[in-house]
Amino acid sequence: MKHTHMKKNKFLTFGCSLLPGAAEMYMGFLNNGLSLLLVFMAAVLLCWGFGEVFCLALFIVWVYGFFHAWSIRSLDEESFKTSEDVYIWEEFTNGRDVVFDKKKVEKTIPVILLLMGFGILWNSFSYLILDFIPDNLWHIFSPIITHLPGNVFAVICVVLGFKLLRNKKKDMDKECEELKDGCESQSK
After folding, report:
1. Would you say residue 1 lies in a domain?
2. Whether 61 and 136 share a structural domain
3. What pTM was estimated for this model as a whole?
4. Is residue 59 part of a domain?
5. Residue range 145-158: average pLDDT?
6. Domain that holds residue 58
7. Whole-angstrom distance, CA of residue 113 vs CA of residue 119
8. In sequence order, what are the residues at sequence separation of 6 or more whose Cβ sits closer than 8 angstroms to the Cβ of residue 14?
9. Which of 91, 125, 160 is the last residue of a domain?
10. Residue 124: exposed, middle, or buried by beta-carbon count in 10 A (0-12, 13-18, 19+)?
11. Residue 161 vs residues 113, 157, 168, 187: alpha-carbon distances, Å
12. pLDDT (tens digit, 9 = 90+) per residue, 126-145?
């Protein structure tokens, strides 16, 4: 079933663009809008569960959603009419299929759910632990205990970032070696 995309009222588009994904759906891009709304809601849940660590991600998704809606709205008529209704993550993969290794997914999803659950429970019950801290040590341990889920997540992000950079460097080194080998074989 092909949906018709149609430019709509600027004022209502502006109002809808305040909620990521709503303006896209208003203009007829249902897959795009629903997927963007899903990403935004996931960021809301992460911000709520882990605190200020994810508030930046929430802000980034909101800003992206706002400007994404206006970027679509500002297309010329021909480009607008021929635009495909794709999921938001497909815009970043340039049409390539994203393939997930089933075993990695089965290992990763439970870890993510456990971390999120731990973070939400920690934020809910950390005040009970703080009641047992003597007043003279309060100023030392209070920030550590209240920010523990965010700090754990920050450490995980740094470790994963270094791992991704190391893998990227290996890929780049491999490409460089292949290019050198190709150049040497052509010159002979």
Report:
1. no
2. no
3. 0.56
4. yes
5. 78
6. 10-91
7. 10
8. 23
9. 91
10. exposed
11. 20, 6, 10, 39
12. 777 777 778 788 778 778 77
